[in-house]
């Protein structure tokens, strides 16, 4: 008879492998045009929920939008999504967002997020790196209800501000710390 921990470990690895395949298939857009359309729709949802985000978009040097990120986990987990970098209203590139995690977690969810790159230096960093890990490089402030109350166009002093929105599913909380963002071809 097999050891119970080996069986549990095999089950967890199987779940994570199946989730990873599902994450990639359900979070990836079919074409560049589809991804652009989805990203623009996601921004409209964000702007309705957080008018400050729309105000920030007018002065941002770039906006990186991930319209659908899917996250799943059972002890080990991961998330995947594809997004668009806009400079003004023009598409500047396509990126993916990948996160791996472990710990007390179970379930699945989807969400969107947008990173407003407020400086030319932040945009250049994202474009020049082979893979940007959030938390390394430009300073990113995660904007929640508390932070949003204290922000105005005159207090925006950091390199980047991120909004997580449109959450659906059964997992609690979303963090983008440690997320790796990489350029992809579309």
UniProtKB/TrEMBL annotation:
UniProt keyword annotations, A-Z: Signal
Q: Which residues form the Ysc84 actin-binding domain?
A: 99-182
Which residue windows are transmembrane per the record?
none
Signal sequence range: 1-19
Mind telling me what this protein is named? Ysc84 actin-binding domain-containing protein
């Amino acid at each position: 008879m097999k050891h119970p921990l080996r069986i549990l470990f095999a089950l967890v690895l199987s779940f994570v492998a199946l989730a990873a395949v599902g994450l990639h298939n359900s979070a990836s857009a079919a074409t560049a045009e589809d991804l652009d359309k989805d990203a623009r729709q996601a921004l409209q949802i964000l702007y309705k929920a957080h008018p400050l985000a729309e105000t920030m978009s007018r002065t941002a040097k770039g906006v990186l939008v991930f319209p659908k990120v899917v996250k799943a986990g059972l002890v080990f987990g991961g998330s995947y999504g594809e997004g668009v970098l806009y400079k003004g209203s023009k598409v500047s590139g396509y990126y993916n967002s990948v996160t791996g995690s472990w710990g007390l977690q179970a379930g699945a969810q989807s969400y969107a997020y947008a990173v407003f790159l407020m400086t030319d230096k932040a945009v250049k960093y994202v474009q020049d790196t082979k893979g940007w890990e959030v938390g390394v490089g430009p300073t990113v402030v995660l904007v929640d209800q508390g932070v949003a109350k204290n922000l105005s166009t005159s207090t925006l002093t950091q390199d980047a501000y991120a909004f997580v929105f449109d959450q659906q599913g059964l997992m609690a909380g979303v963090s983008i710390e440690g997320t790796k963002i990489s350029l992809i071809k579309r």
